[in-house]
Amino acid sequence: MLTRPAFAQVAADFTTTGRVDPAVLVDATVRYVTEAAVAGVEVIVMDSLIPYVPSLIALGYDEPQIAAIVDGLADRIAAFPTMAIFLDGDASTSLGRAAAREGPDWLGWYAAKLARYGVLAAPEPNLDALSDYLSRERALTLRVLRRQPWALSVVERVDELSPEDVFEVVRHAVTGFCGPAP
């Protein structure tokens, strides 16, 4: 995302200060979606950064502020049919998978990052503390998403599915929302 021209200001602000004003995030998203629509793109897949809940938590925003920011984003992209797909599963299992995939130092790096943001009390890679944080983040994200006029598909127990099965569930949800590809 940070390499796309529409997000140039987001990338510059984050690189310079480590922070991004929510209005800049929303403006960049609106610009990106609008440019894609003008170019004839029918489906845009954006990652977990949208609707920015984990980033906004890390930047110190509370739930009412986060909800207002995402509400503003929803208002500004209301002309575009939008679906949010939330991959849900056990945080401990997901953390274990990520650590196995990323290497032995990843869990410590992740804990230290969350501690720097002030969302984790200690920088130690404590699986219980990390899982607890991710559970709170999950709950807040789902509350914010459920406020929106967007279609919401929650794919449950993804930690019990293979990546291929997750892809098929998501593909089916998107096809149901958008219709089959031409």
Beta-strand portion reads 5-15%
- Counting H and I runs of at least 4 residues, what is the number of helices? 8
What characteristic shape results from the CA principal axes?
globular
* Uncertain regions spanning at least 5 consecutive residues: none
Distance between the termini: 26 Å
How many domains? The number is 1
Question: Mind summarizing the main beta sheet?
Answer: 2 strands, parallel
Overall radius of gyration: 17 Å
- Summarize the helix and strand pattern as letters: HHHHEHHHEH
Structural class call reads mainly alpha
Q: Helix amount, in percent?
A: 55-70%
Mean pLDDT level? 90
Give your account of this protein's structure:
The structure is a single chain. With 182 residues, this protein is mainly α. It has one domain (5-97, 138-178). The protein has helices at 8-17, 22-38, 53-58, 63-76, 91-102, 106-116, 127-146, 163-178; strands spanning 83-87, 151-155. It has a two-stranded parallel sheet with strand order 1-2. It is globular. The model has no long low-confidence stretch (mean pLDDT 90).
List the helices and strands and how they pair.
Layout: H1 8-17, H2 22-38, H3 53-58, H4 63-76, E1 83-87, H5 91-102, H6 106-116, H7 127-146, E2 151-155, H8 163-178
Helix pairs in contact: 2-4
